[in-house]
Amino acid sequence: MIRPVILRPMALRPATLGLVALAVLVLVLPLVISNSFYLDLVIRIAINAIIVLGLNLLIGFAGQISFGHAGFLGIGAYASAVLPTHFGWPPLLALIAGAAAAAALAAVMAWPIFRLKGHYLAMATLGLGIILNLIFRNEASYTGGPDGMAVPAMELFGLQLSRDRQWYWVIAALLLVSVWASLNIIDSPFGRALRALHGSDVAARVVGVDIARYKMAIFVMSATFASIMGSITAHYVGFVTPNIADFFHSVELVTMVVVGGMASVFGSLLGAVLLTILPQALATFEGWETVAFGAILILCMIFMPRGLLPTLAARLGSLRFAVARLRAGRSAGESDS
């Protein structure tokens, strides 16, 4: 006897639903945003979100702290400024060269840096970022020094990107690809090895994880993410200064990871949204941005150590569990009566 085939709706994971919702949001936003200021703000949020996704893989999943990550942004930004301006390189080739340089530097520095732990590791990455920032400031003949320099327009397939809406679609596509790639990395054996590193180096070594290789791999990957987005930022803004690689920018990126939720892909997006909008909200209070970032980081570490999104998800899960128990108790009472 042949049984009829019953078609059931495909079960979608929350991560897949989140990616679909993000894609819908990306498609709808240009239709509802007519103001160029808000479109620029959305583009900057997307840029920060992509950077933070790569940094969250390093900090949130692998448990390796980096307070010099803005230095890799600077490598990409200045590669896209210096190489086309002084040496006549095509912008796309300069972007690739910047990413390769950042990856090479990260690979060289990973071995000595990741032999350190805790505060020493944070200090080492901080020192790396400060050195890169000083190079960008002092090599004035190439970088323009503290005043910065103009960046040539980006060209893709013969089309020069000059309008905000053109940049929106390019960066939105990069955001969707980055979220999709991050979700797949997390669910892969590589992602499971990263989570093992976050738990304990000794335990990870016992189960066969090559600690040095995985730490180097995730550091290089995160640095490459940052360098590419540094180049994109430089071309989008049309100008670059050493401020892109300063210490405060590194702290800002780490704060986005912590506030949104470490080891949470969509928490990274939430952190980027909140802390990109916050300086705009505090624009009338000059100097208060730094105080606000510090206060938010402290409050999150005290009251929400897992970050905003994971904490809200956990509390929602607890609420659902309590409601389910209450309903079960009522059902049991009605059946007894």
Automatic annotation (TrEMBL):
The protein here is known as Amino acid/amide ABC transporter membrane protein 2, HAAT family
Record keywords: Cell membrane, Membrane, Transmembrane, Transmembrane helix
Bilayer-crossing regions:
12-33, 45-63, 93-113, 120-136, 167-186, 217-237, 257-278, 290-309
Gene Ontology CC annotations of this record: plasma membrane
Q: Which InterPro entries match?
A: ABC_transp_permease, LivM-like
Q: Where in the cell is it found?
A: Cell membrane
Q: Which domain of life is it from?
A: Bacteria
Q: How does it sit in the membrane?
A: Multi-pass membrane protein
A GO molecular function term, named singly, is: branched-chain amino acid transmembrane transporter activity
